Amino acid sequence: ELGPYSHYMQKEIHEQPKAIADTIAPLLDAGFVPALFGPRAADLLPQVQGVQIIACGTSFYAASVARYWIEAIAGVPCNVEVASEYRYRTVVANPSHLVVTISQSGETLDTMEALKYARSLGHDKTLSICNVRESAIPRASDLVFYTRAGAEIGVASTKAFTTQLIALFALAGTLAKLHGRLDDAAEQGYLDALRHLPGSVQHALNLEPQITAWAQKFATKDHALFLGRGLHYPIALEGALKLKEISYIHAEAYPAGELKHGPLALVDDNMPVVVIAPNDSLLEKVKSNMQEVRARGGELFVFADLDSHFSESDGVHVIRTPRHIGVLSPILHAVPVQLLAYHAALQRGTDVDKPRNLAKSVTVE
Ligand code: M6R
Hints:
Layout: H1 8-14, H2 16-30, H3 41-44, E1 50-55, H4 57-74, E2 78-82, H5 83-86, E3 97-103, H6 109-120, E4 126-130, H7 136-139, E5 143-146, H8 159-178, H9 184-205, H10 208-218, E6 223-228, H11 233-247, E7 250-255, E8 272-277, H12 283-295, E9 299-305, E10 316-321, H13 329-348
Parallel strand pairs: 1-2, 1-3, 3-4, 4-5, 6-7, 6-8, 8-9, 9-10
Helix pairs in contact: 2-8, 2-9, 4-8, 4-11, 9-13, 10-13, 11-13
Catalytic activity: D-fructose 6-phosphate + L-glutamine = D-glucosamine 6-phosphate + L-glutamate
Enzyme class: transferase
Function: Catalyzes the first step in hexosamine metabolism, converting fructose-6P into glucosamine-6P using glutamine as a nitrogen source.
């Protein structure tokens, strides 16, 4: 069943071009239309004035990317919150907002309870983004988008994450269209970019040998720092979570602009610093953050796009992902950090598919 792969996680990382192609297929057919989210969406989505996303773990990081998309592309206010926090605080609900829960399994207890709480506060427009058909959370929601990642067996979520991002991009585009912020040319532009995405992800997967060489260095470390900005800050968070979850290396992620507000004190020549540095409008800012790290002796491991000017130098290692792909870039940049965590764990001999203390589906508090 594993074919040429050593673990489910590795297989699932490599299944991403297909998982993404399968998940974008209805979007490429229909464009950004409410029908993608189920039969009631044509009625409910036009009423939506804001979005509240609730999720746990990796699904929460998908939500955190979506916040940038929904506000920038659709011009709709968007909040994101961890389910275990949302469910236990006094929330001021706005029933004109769409409550979106994201859960690969559809069975996560905190996410389910947060959804019930939102409903009890008067939220009557709820959407579930889920990978398991007819699981508890989509059954309790008004609208649903099923990602088509196929069964995900490794505890570390990989292909579910990238397909959740597709679902969320579809939501941002659909809300943008409903709010008159997406003309035909812009819609076609996004659809073209999506069509090319599986190929770009395949290119990123082909970087595996280079990433394996980096992972060998990581495996000897006790700590790592991940930096990103804007859309890629959540990818830094996801990279740090993957690394700690399966290799047990302590990893933290920060928005790069926060470095000098505290974490810079941690940096010395024993602290590897991974930087997600796509060729976007924040690149120059990221480069100056990198200089701050280098000046303290920190070793930099930079994921840069093919079309940006970066040179390797002493203490600065660069792996180039494909050409910059605009707002879809976080989907592409998720792949190398998954591979880095996988190969670091392999070096350390941990149980990659079943890391200690963790379960695939968290149905308890
Ligand atoms: O099934 P869910 O998406 O609701 O699961 C949420 C988290 O438990 C999950 O993403 C967890 O963080 C992963 N093991 C991370 O790889």
